[in-house]
Amino acid sequence: SLYAALTTAKPDLIILDIGLPDINGREVALKLKQNPRTRGIPILFLTALYSKEDETRKKHMLDDNVLFTKPYDREEFQATIKKLLKDKKKILIVDDQADVLSMLGKRLVAEKYSVIKADNGEDALILARSEHPDLIILDLEMSDMYGGDIARMIKEDPETADIPVMFLTGMFPKEDEEKGGHVIAGHVLFAKPYDARELVTVIKELL
């Protein structure tokens, strides 16, 4: 049922028991980490199979996932959850091309970013305010609104003015991108088609 739920929803965190009746929780975690759609989701093991001494010896980690044994300290548990959710940077991708949203989204999830998507300017502005992402990757030539106008409205809104914006567009050739030093109107610019590794490197620098 977990796998079925993850086909329609993508949580920011999974709290997973190791001693499940039908399968070992560590096997579930391994499958999730092998799936491009779910590999970026942090996992917290909560189990009675290990003693507190085992937890301490493993330094609260098991298979690169956080480990808590039952019974657990509530305050420490809540603090760990907050840290796991806070550490994951959130990126809003805005593009009216479904393939760009899908491919770029998968790449960023694989890099352990939390991804939200919008395929039009109106939704982008709503999500920028409600989700307050750490970065917005914005197509310049949208079907309903020019990307430059979206960026301007984001920067004029006190609620979103501090969010960095990166333009990703097919409007300019690679030569223009290089001549412009990857910057247009004060925002980083990447021309399509883009080098995924270079794009991820710049994203890490911005965040």
TrEMBL record:
Keywords of the record: Phosphoprotein
GO biological process, any: phosphorelay signal transduction system
The species this protein was found in: marine sediment metagenome
One matching Pfam family: Response_reg
InterPro entries per record: Bact_response_regulator, CheY-like_superfamily, Sig_transdc_resp-reg_receiver
Stated name of the protein: Response regulatory domain-containing protein
Domain Response regulatory: residue ranges: 1-85, 90-207
